[in-house]
Amino acid sequence: MKKQVFSLLLLCALVLTGCGGQIEKTERSDRLQIVTTVFPAYDFARAAAGEWADVKLLLPPGTESHTYEPTPSDILAVQECDLFLYLGGESDAWVETILSAVEMRGTAMRMVDCVDLLEEESVAGMQEEHEDHGAGEVAELDEHVWTSPQNAAAITRAVGEQLSALDGAHAGDYTAAAEAYAAKIHELDGEFAAFFDARTDRTMVFGDRFPLRYFAEEYDLDYYAAFPGCSTQTEPSAATVAFLTDKVRQEKIPTVWYIEFSNHLVADSIAEAAGAKTAMFHSCHNVSKVELDGGATYVTLMQGNLEALKKYL
Q1: Measured distance CA(253)–CA(268) in Å, rounded
Q2: CATH code, 236
Q3: Low-confidence ranges of the chain (pLDDT < 50)
Q4: Beta strands in 145-297 (DSSP E)
Q5: Residue 67 domain-assigned?
């Protein structure tokens, strides 16, 4: 049903933009127009764009990207922009449908092409999305590349380079702005590294999806979770809950973590049974309206994660 609705939306947008352009278009600004899908793309793009380009975030605040359905106006925005920055993973597979059906005015850029990719993995105790994936076996490539600060800095620089290529008059400005933000991210990376280097136990348990494979890899963390990063499931099996509860109890792990916009019922259940606390780790995939209006950035959200780790890990 969702596929049919999306196809109808796409058809409507194509009808409106085709055959002589039958809709009234707003006048284009001389500034570069950048359209992004998820919050990390938006944040990195606006940092690199500075005051010289306009950046639009398609995914509404608080929306789950894995179930997002673009509107006709979203499709038009993608078609008409100078740079379209998207993730390139499973959660925005709808993008490829749009790009194959419309003729873009500008350039499309995938965040996953800016860094080395890891495969999503299933660890011991994790609820399997497919029965043929066993513990320790890999599934598809993990799309949550931005959760590694080093990757975030690399993507920001890549966006700055792309903007410089599109707008030579401000090339130096884009490069400098991207480098300045990348430097802030590297400073944050150093703080995370120092925190984890001082710890002997680096095990985290998530009673939730685990979209933090790149974060865990960068800081050499051990983790257990209820679901893989892109899982559509919300109710783990009794065996998964029992495994995670035993892990928390036996290893005296003080906190069961959950991610933003989660109802954290699974984390609460595990923590209550094991005598632990719960806390949120923000994956930065999307933000609430309050966070967006309050000026949240990738850096401020990750700084919040660091403070939570110092308090609860």
Answers
A1: 14
A2: 3.40.50.1980
A3: 1-4, 15, 17-26, 130-138
A4: 203-210, 222-228, 255-259, 277-281
A5: no
Query: Is residue 214 assigned to a domain?
Result: yes
User: How far is residue 107's CA from residue 84's CA, in Å, rounded to a whole number?
Assistant: 6
**Cα–Cα distance between 201 and 103 in angstroms, integer?**
52
257 DSSP β-pair partners? 206, 279
Give Cα 119 to chain centroid, integer Å: 16
Q: How many domains does the chain have?
A: 1
Secondary structure of residue 204 in the 3-state scheme: strand
**For residues 188 and 306, is the Cβ–Cβ distance under 8 A?**
yes
Burial letters 229-259, b for 16+ CB under 10 A, else e: bbbeeeebeeebbebbbebbeeeebbbbbbb
Hey, what are 232's tokens?
Answer: 């559509």
Chain position carrying tokens 């100078």 = 82
Note whether residue 165 is domain-resident.
no
Domain that holds residue 227: 195-312
Q: What is the pLDDT of residue 24?
A: 41
* pLDDT for the residue numbered 210: 95
* Dist. CA 264–CA 260, nearest whole Å: 9
